[in-house]
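Supplementary Text 2. Reproducibility record for the structural model of the 171-residue chain.

All settings were left at their defaults, and a single model was retained for analysis rather than an ensemble. We include the record here because the model underlies the residue-level annotations in Supplementary Table 4.
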Amino acid sequence: MTQSHTVFVYGTLKTDHWNNHVLHHGKATLVGVGQTVPKYLLFDGGFPKMSHLPSHAPADVLAKLTPLLGHVRGEVWRIDDESLMNCDRLEGHPKFYCREKIGVRLDGSAKPLTAWAYIIVGFPRYERNALIVPKNGVLEWDTDRKPSDRKSTRLNSSHITISYAVFCLKK
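Retained model, structure tokens:
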């Protein structure tokens, strides 16, 4: 007997994006659109990477990253075992992304629900990853953003093992 799973997607698995078909290899139903209850960082390196605030970062780095935390906007889907397995394969679970249970609040609903979400393992550390700046406390990955929108924050990969965000925000 197949189980039903609730999954929050915020990037290429969303409707009208290039990996949405992965959800439909099994049974998939769009539940609604909403945003995460917890706040995350959201990186864009051609596809989005939702990340926890790195607990190992120095205090000055945490002070710079904290204002970039936001509620991530996306879609909630109800999928079967086959689709979940396909998503795990696509997302490289558990080595590239780790599937975690998170709270999501659907638009128009006061009560949050629990859904699986794919969180990047580790902290993205390559120059090609730009932090997305929240708008009104909300982070949303948009494939139509202009490259100039990515100039505000970049990762510094000058350290061999750990890189942190370097902020070039205009005053």
